[in-house]
Amino acid sequence: VMLYILSPFINKALLQMTKRQVLILLLSIYGILLYRWVLLVPNAGSNLLGLLFVYILARCAAMYKIEFSRQRCVVVYMASAVLLTIMACVLFYATRNSLAPKDTQRLVFQLYAYCNPMIVVMAAALFFFVRSFSAKYCSWLNLLLSANLFVYLFTQGVGLINYHSIASMLFTQPLLFVGYIAAVVLMALFAGYIISYISKGIVRLGM
């Protein structure tokens, strides 16, 4: 809500800045996020500053007409995902015998924080990949992604997933981990579609 209120002022400020100034601003914000991430601050990047960074990054893509090919987005996304998985495996197996299980889970979970450089790169690659589709696919994508927010609301707000407790499951029971995550995401999406359908019906009745 705060970012929504501030967005007109942010947009105006960005238009008054040079590319160099915008780049310095982005690097400064990300530097703060990265510093908190290295210090193992919980939910690093999952705050107003993190949202501000993502907003400015997306705004820059629109302002400066930044585009990437679909193929490059796929390669970058997959390479980052593989590297991130390897780092998580190394971190888990390197610390599981020397640290308490909760501490190992905390370190692995921290690796998947929103401000992790690889997470940022993966998010940007996915954004440009979706953006590369032609207009005829937009209605289909909008329908498919319309309930995407509910995945966040159900997993974070309701707490269907305790990320800390399942962090080590990725390595000890990978198939169960993937199945569990997929099931929760699908249930959240399905619930989101139902809620959206009901809410639109209520609006139509009110009109």
Quick synopsis:
This protein is mainly alpha-helical and 207 residues long.
What are the main properties of this structure?
mainly alpha
Account of the protein in words:
With 207 residues, this protein is mostly helical. 79% of the residues lie in helices and 0% in strands. It has 11 helices and no strands. The protein has helices at residues 2-16, 19-38, 48-63, 70-95, 101-111, 117-131, 138-145, 148-158, 163-166, 169-172, 174-206. The chain starts with a helix and ends with a helix. The model has no long low-confidence stretch (mean pLDDT 84).
Give the total of beta strands: 0
Order of helices and strands: HHHHHHHHHHH
> What fraction of the residues are assigned to beta strands by DSSP?
under 5%
- Structural class category: mainly alpha
Query: What portion of residues is helical?
Result: over 70%
Q: Which consecutive residue ranges, at least 5 long each, have pLDDT under 50?
A: none
Oligomer category:
single chain
Number of helices: 11
Report the major sheet.
none
Q: In angstroms, what separates the terminal alpha carbons?
A: 26 Å
Give the mean pLDDT: 84
Cα-atom Rg, whole angstroms? 19 Å
Rough shape?
globular
Fold topology:
Layout: H1 2-16, H2 19-38, H3 48-63, H4 70-95, H5 101-111, H6 117-131, H7 138-145, H8 148-158, H9 163-166, H10 169-172, H11 174-206
Helix pairs in contact: 1-3, 2-3, 4-5, 4-6, 8-11
